[in-house]
Design brief:
The chain is of the alpha+beta class. Among the domains are: 2-153, Sandwich (Immunoglobulin-like); 317-352. The chain has 16 helices and 39 strands. A 9-stranded parallel beta sheet has the order 25-24-22-18-14-13-12-27-26. Strands 28-29-30-35-32-33 form a 6-stranded antiparallel beta sheet. The chain has a 5-stranded antiparallel beta sheet with strand order 1-11-8-7-4. A hairpin with a 3-residue loop joins strand 29 (548-550) and strand 30. The chain starts with a strand and ends in a 14-residue tail after the last strand. The structure holds ligand MIG. Ligand MIG binds next to loops.
Length: 678
């Protein structure tokens, strides 16, 4: 049962797909205050209450004890004091024993979530704009609430099968020569891979929908040559279009009036990578379609995957902001720079990027309704995602394309996946990657992933290896790095063989992962969830912050600390542990319910299987997902006397492809304490 309450004038956000009639009055149990402007919801908690959800956010799996903010932000340092990242996923799960409340604020403006930070036993949610549709879903258990919520927001995007393969990426690969070298070396070393990303370097002067004629003289040829090696090329597209009438996209956008305006009707300009840019009004159907069609020539060149960046939108500075800053600096120029003048000078420059004033300076035309940007800020990236995917489907309606985007708002989970932005080569960010998975799943972002190995800073081999050991379970498995950092594709490390072996595990697990992904899309069950969902009576399990259920069948508990030789793992019941070194080298043992220190060498990944289950593995070396389609046999891994496994498959390429379900009979299974797998 889903209830809806409207406040102010809610906007059409495209977040929900079910129509729910708003109720009269206020919901029971929630204090509602009209702040004029703004609206505030206050809910009590007990000491037992746990909070889950909120999608892309810092800190633990249980979100209690911090103030979060919904305000899509390009933040280069995801430290635990931060309130907002690139996506706003306004779904909170309030879990009490035997009673779960799911709360969704459909409001694309600025929202504060004080989750027991200021007042220990209080949830205070403040919408600064006050135009909100509040959806409430109440039931006994969290899984039922999650499924109902996912029903409300519609089915998640399904990428092509190949997108579940290993993807290599780096800011700095200039073009064909660079990426061919990387691909060739991966193939020579038998490191399986399916895709390679091109960052802004491939463009001509960082301009969208162009290719650098020196480094990519023959785009279609390059795409074809790499596809012959079973590698897909995935170029980046940024949100801004350069202010230059000689740029075809710019000229065409001006002609068709597709860019956002300021109040006085002039075009809003702000700088990003190509210099001053215009910004497409993704909130307007006509403009969105215009932008989506810009992808067509690249699709015609054979590209079948993209990533969309800088779409918060991230702004280095606006034209107006820069002018004001120069004035300020000028006024300080001949003065003796004392304390306050010095700080004023510094502030003049530091406050240029992503300035709140700039987000109040332009307007959208939401199909007839004029709306100032700050009121709908969190929808911008979602609009770009929809623009891109709709554009691709106008090009080929039945083809599945890969798309992942940086900025998002619930609703965009139907059009593309996300990556979680500029993390660091920190061990704490490996842990954060793990902890973010359940929240993303609950909010519909099944196809998501973090920059494996860390984006900023120079990484180390052991961090990459440990991160791969988590990455094999995460749908988007992409190794990405910032410009100027140490080269970090697998081939660059002395431990490359161990890394390669871990990547082979991804392919061993891939049919299972894909099957479970399809089921999760269909049923609305999260792909990843907190242990609390399945072991509600077990206090230790409920409060475990560094282990995650992968479907209802498995648990993952990766090592996320440097120089560790294993880790403490809590088993809420007897489980079968797979210790895996490569697709052909793994063993299994049954472990008893309780707390354990589990040794785990640097070259090992762990997977825990719940009682009664077996999962299918492909214990063959493969080069890419193409080999996986060739009908390789499965080895069943798990408990003796397990139930059969329902494998879901489809052709992996077409939207209309039917899902075929096959029953895999259980294998011998393990029943002793150190059974080898076969
Ligand atoms: O301002 O395109 O998050 O993945 O490599 C940085 C360059 C712009 C930010 C993305 C990152 C990408 C980088 N981009």
């Amino acid at each position: 049962m889903i209830r809806r309450y409207d406040y102010g004038t809610p906007l059409l956000t495209d977040a929900v797909v079910l129509s729910v009639e708003p109720e009269k009055g206020n919901p029971g149990g929630i204090t509602v205050e009209d702040l004029k402007p703004g609206i505030r919801f206050t809910l009590p908690m007990t000491e037992e209450t746990q909070l889950f959800g909120l999608g892309q956010a810092v800190r633990g799996i249980d979100k209690r004890g911090h103030i979060y903010r919904s305000w899509n932000t390009d933040d280069v340092l995801h430290t635990e004091n931060k309130a907002a990242l690139y996506g706003s996923h306004n779904f909170l799960l309030i879990v009490n024993p035997g009673d779960t409340l799911g709360l969704f604020l459909d409001d694309p403006g600025d929202i504060r979530w004080d989750l027991g930070a200021t007042e220990e036993n209080q949830i205070v949610i403040t919408s600064l704009g006050g135009d909100v549709s509040l959806y409430l879903i109440q039931d006994r258990d969290p899984l039922t609430v999650c499924r109902a919520f996912r029903g409300l927001i519609g089915k998640s995007y399904i990428p092509p099968f190949w997108a579940f393969g290993y993807i290599q990426s780096r800011w700095g690969y200039a073009g064909e020569e660079d990426i061919t070298k990387v691909v060739t070396e991966h193939r020579q070393k038998h490191i399986p891979m399916d895709g390679i990303c091109l960052d802004i370097d491939y463009m001509d002067r960082f301009r969208d929908f162009t290719w650098n004629p020196k480094t990519v003289p023959d785009p279609a040829g390059m795409v074809k040559r790499l596809r012959e090696k079973n590698v897909h090329v995935i170029p980046i597209i940024d949100a801004g279009i350069p202010v230059d009438e000689n740029d075809p996209a710019c000229a065409d956008g001006l002609k068709n009036d597709t860019f956002v305006h300021r109040e006085d009707g002039s075009l809003f300009q702000a700088a990003v990578w190509p210099g001053l840019c215009y910004f497409t009004d993704y909130l307007n159907t006509r403009c969105r379609n215009w932008f989506g069609d810009l992808y067509r020539p690249m699709l015609e060149a054979g590209v079948d995957g993209f990533w969309n960046d800088m779409n918060e939108p991230s702004l280095f500075y606006s034209r107006d902001g820069l002018e004001a800053a120069w004035k300020e600096i000028d006024s300080l120029k001949d003065r003796n720079l004392g304390q306050s003048e010095f700080w004023a000078l510094k502030r003049a420059v530091d406050s240029l990027a992503n300035n709140p004033e700039d987000y109040r300076a332009f307007w959208h035309d939401m199909d007839g309704q004029k709306v100032r940007h700050d009121r709908v800020h969190n929808l911008y990236g979602a609009g770009m995602t929809k623009a891109a995917m709709d554009g691709m489907h106008r090009f080929d309606p039945d083809r599945r394309f890969l798309l992942f985007t940086r900025s998002s708002y619930i609703g965009s989970h139907r059009y593309g996946g996300i990556w979680t932005g500029d993390n660091c080569a920190w061990w704490s960010h490996l842990k954060l990657n793990l902890q973010m998975l359940p929240g993303l799943s609950m909010c519909g972002y099944l196809f998501s992933g973090a920059d494996l190995g860390g984006f900023n800073n120079d990484t180390t081999g052991d961090l990459v290896l440990r991160w791969l050991e988590l990455g094999i379970f995460v749908p988007l498995m992409r190794n990405h790095a910032a410009l100027g950092t140490r080269e970090k594709d697998i081939c660059r490390f002395s431990r490359w063989k161990d890394m390669r072996n871990i990547v082979t595990l991804r392919y061993a697990l891939l049919p299972f992962l894909y099957s479970e992904f399809l089921k999760a899309v269909d049923s609305g069950t999260p792909l990843f969830m907190p242990l609390a969902f399945l072991y509600p009576g077990d206090t230790v399990a409920c409060h475990t912050q560094d282990q995650v259920m992968l479907t209802e069948q498995c648990m993952i508990a990766p090592v996320y600390e440097q120089n560790a030789v294993g880790r403490h793992v809590y088993l809420p019941e007897d489980m079968l542990m797979l210790r895996m070194r490569s697709c052909t080298d793994m063993d299994a043992c049954v472990m008893e319910k309780g707390a354990h220190f589990v040794p785990c060498a640097l070259n090992e990944a762990l997977l825990f299987i719940r009682k009664g289950y077996q999962i299918p593995l492909v214990m063959h070396d493969v080069e890419s997902t193409v080999d996986l389609r060739a009908g390789l046999s499965f080895t069943m891994a798990g408990w003796k006397d397990a139930q059969p496994y329902e494998l879901w498959e489809d052709d992996g390429e077409h939207v209309s492809a039917p899902v075929i379900s096959r029953t895999l009979a259980p294998g011998r299974g393990a029943d002793n304490r150190s059974g080898l797998l076969r």
